[in-house]
From TrEMBL:
This is Leader peptidase (Prepilin peptidase)/N-methyltransferase. The keyword Methyltransferase applies. It comes from Aureimonas pseudogalii. Coiled coil: none annotated. PANTHER family: PREPILIN LEADER PEPTIDASE_N-METHYLTRANSFERASE-RELATED, TYPE 4 PREPILIN-LIKE PROTEINS LEADER PEPTIDE-PROCESSING ENZYME. Its EC number is 2.1.1.-, 3.4.23.43. GO terms for cellular component: plasma membrane. Keywords: Hydrolase, Membrane, Methyltransferase, Transferase, Transmembrane, Transmembrane helix.
C-alpha cells in the first residue's frame, strides 16, 4: 500500500481514535483500581499490530523486537527492585502496557514516553505535596494514567509533525533561529 495517501491518513486517525479509547480506559481503571487490565493491554497491542500491518509493514519485525526488548528489560527491573526492596515497585500491568505501547512508538520514542510519564508523575506528586498531601517512600502511585497520557501525546505530536522528508522539519540551519555560526 502506498504511504502518504488520504486513505493512510484516515486509517492513522482511526487507529489513534481507537487507541485513545483504550488509553482512556487504562487511565481511569488504573487511577481507580491501581491495576491495568490485560484486556486493555491486549487491545493496545492488537491495535498496534494491525496499524503496523496496514500502514508500516516494513517496521513490523523491528517493533516486535522493540516490544520484546523493553518488556524484558522492565521485567528484569521489576524483579531486581522487588529483590532489593522486598516490595513491588512497578506493576506487571505497567510492564505489559509499555511493551504494547512500544509496538506503536518503537524503542526510541518509548524512552520519550517513559520520560514524559515520569515527569508528569513527579509534577503530580509535587502538587500533591504542595496542597498538604502526604508524599513519602511508601506513597503508591498509579503510573498507568501518566503512561497513557504520555503515549497519546507522543503519537499525536508525531502524527501532526511534517513528514521526515519535508525540508521544513527539522530546521537544520542555525540562521533560521537568528543564530550566526562562525
Amino acid at each position: 500500500m502506498p504511504t502518504g495517501t488520504a486513505l493512510d491518513a484516515g486509517l492513522e486517525t482511526a487507529f489513534l481514535v481507537a487507541l485513545g479509547v483504550a488509553l482512556l480506559a487504562v487511565a481511569v481503571t488504573d487511577a481507580r483500581e491501581r491495576r491495568i487490565p490485560d484486556v486493555w493491554n491486549l487491545a493496545i497491542a492488537l491495535l498496534g499490530l494491525a496499524r503496523l500491518i496496514a500502514l508500516h509493514p516494513a517496521q513490523f519485525v523491528d517493533r516486535l523486537l522493540d516490544a520484546a526488548a523493553i518488556g524484558s528489560l522492565l521485567l528484569l527491573l521489576r524483579w531486581v527492585y522487588r529483590r532489593m526492596r522486598g516490595r513491588v515497585g512497578l506493576g506487571l500491568g505497567d510492564v505489559k502496557f509499555v511493551a504494547a505501547a512500544a509496538l506503536w512508538t518503537g524503542l526510541s520514542d518509548m524512552t520519550l514516553v517513559i520520560l514524559l510519564a515520569s515527569l508528569a508523575a513527579l509534577v503530580w506528586l509535587g502538587g500533591l505535596r504542595l496542597v498538604g498531601g502526604s508524599v513519602g517512600r511508601g506513597t503508591r502511585l498509579a503510573f498507568g494514567p501518566f503512561l497513557a497520557g504520555a503515549l497519546f501525546a507522543v503519537l499525536v505530536f508525531d502524527a501532526a509533525s511534517p513528514a521526515a522528508g519535508d525540508e521544513a522539519w527539522p530546521i537544520e540551519d542555525p540562521a533560521d533561529f537568528g543564530l550566526s555560526v562562525p
